[in-house]
Design brief:
By secondary structure, the protein is an alpha+beta fold. It is built from eight helices and 15 strands. A hairpin with a 4-residue loop joins strand 11 and strand 12. The longest helix has 17 residues.
Length: 356
Amino acid sequence: MRRVLPLVLVFTAFSPAFAALKKVIILPIINIDKDANFAYLEGSITDSLKERLREKFAFDELAEEKWTLVAEQNFILKDDFHTRTAAMNLGILANQDIVINGGFKPVNKKLAGGKIKSSIHATAHLLDVKKKKTIATIELDLPADSELFTAVGQVADRMEAETRKVIPSKEDAARSGLTAESAPFFSDFSLGLRGGGGVYVSGYAKYFTAQLPALGAILHANMPRFGGLTTELGFTFMGHRLREGNDAAIQQLGASATTANYMASWSLGYRIGLSARWYLEPQLGGGYVMQTTTVTGSGINSTLNNGFPFGRAGLMTGFRVNQLIDLSVSAESLAYVEQGTMTFLPLVLAGVHYKF
C-alpha cells in the first residue's frame, strides 16, 4: 500500500483539472440512392442536425477537413457514410468518442385502390465509438410533398432527445467545468529510415569524393498548436575518401584516407498538403558532424577525429500509403565552414516512415 500511494499522488498531480468534452464527428446524412430529385435534402437534413446539436450541446467537434482526410487515407468512401460499419471505423481511426451518421431514400408504398404514397425514409445512428456500440437508431418517414420542408427538422428533434443521454447540454457542461482537450504540443510521431547519396560542391569538394550509400534515421513529429509546423531529429551516416590526383598533403606522402561522417541534426518544417495523400515539407535547421578519418599507407596508420557544426535546408515530398506508413523523397543541402572554407553537401534520400 505504501508503494502504491506515491504513484497515485503522482498521477493525480499530473491529471487534468477538468474532465474533457466528448469528441464528436457529425457525418453528412447521405442520399443513399443518389436520387437527383432529393439531392438537396442531403445538405438540408445535415445542416439542420448540426445546427441543433451545436446550439444545445457542449462537445468537441472534429473539423470536416480532418475526418475527411482520415476517411480518404483509409479508403472509407462517402457513399458508405450512412452505414454503421463505416462510421464506427472512421470514429476509431480518428480517435473520437461519438459518431452521428445516417441516410435517406425515397420509398413508394402501394395503398388500397392502387394508389401510390411516396415518402422519404430517413435513418440516423448515434454511435459510441469507445464502447463500439449503437446508442440509438432513429427511423422516420418524411412526407415527399410540400410538407417536406417543414418535416426536415424532425430528424434533429429525435436526435436531440437521444443525444441528451450521452452529451451534456451547454449549461450542464459550464456547471461541471467541462472543457475541450487542448491540442498536444507534439503529435503524430513517426520513425523513418532513409537511404541515398550525395556529392560535395565547392570548398573542399576538390579533395573529397562522397561514398555511397548515405544512410539515415529520423524521428518526426507534428506540432498541432502551431498549425502545419513540424519538427525532426535526424541522424545520417556517410563516408568519403580523398579524390585521386589532388594536392592534399596526405597523397603527396603516398598515403590514402577514408572518413566516416556521423551527422546529427534538428530541423523545423512546415507541411503543405497537396492532396489527401501527397504533401510537401520545406525544412530548415542545423546540426553537428563528427568525423573519424583513417589514414594508411607509406608506413602511416593513424586515426584523426574532427567535428564542426553545419546548416541544413531541405524539401521533402511525402506520400501517405495508409494511416501508419508514409514514403518520402527528400532533397537537402548541408553547408559547413571548416578552416575558413565553406563546403556544400547536397543529398537525395528516399525513406519509409512508420507512425506510432
